[in-house]
Amino acid sequence: MCSGRVCPTFIFKAFLEGADGVLVCGCHPGDCHYHEGNYKCLRRFKLIEKYIMQMGIEPDRVRLAWISASEGKQFAELVNHMTETVRNLGPSTIKLQLETFV
Ligand code: FES
Question: pTM here?
Answer without folding.
Answer: 0.90
